[in-house]
Specification:
133 residues, mainly alpha
């Protein structure tokens, strides 16, 4: 899997480098049309190589997409949180019902149910080593 990831990144780097070398001409990117320049207090434009403008546009598109998806999925996160809270409430209620409404049980089983979880006993050194082949 790591080799596939590295291969993909190398191919992507080669494509981006070729794109940058092929688009080195300067372009002027304006934020506002020229008719609105007097109202905005000046010329809102930058002159940069075409590949920089292209890369900035790609980064901007990715960021807008991330924000859009985060906002779109907000109701799913809220529903997930509500369900997790409901599940915790139900588990707490079941635990309470087990303590208060349980039929008479064997005393030994009751002690085992109420006992806190214990750590397993320490094993001799080398007991958890993998088996030899």
């Amino acid at each position: 899997m790591r080799a596939i990831r590295i291969f993909f990144l190398v191919i992507l780097a080669i494509v981006l480098i070729l794109l940058a070398v092929a688009n080195r001409d300067l372009v002027t990117v304006s934020l506002l049309p020229e008719a609105f320049a007097p109202f905005a207090g000046g010329q809102w434009s930058l002159t940069m190589p075409a590949f920089v403008a292209l890369f900035l546009a790609m980064v901007f598109g990715v960021l807008v997409g991330l924000v859009w998806e985060w906002l779109r999925e907000s109701h799913l996160r809220a529903e997930s949180n509500r369900r997790a809270q409901h599940l915790a409430d139900l588990q707490r209620e079941v635990g309470h019902l087990r303590k208060t409404h349980a039929a008479p049980r064997d005393e030994v089983l009751a002690i085992l149910d109420e006992a806190p979880a214990r750590k397993p006993a320490a094993q001799p050194a080398g007991a958890n080593l993998p088996a030899t082949r």
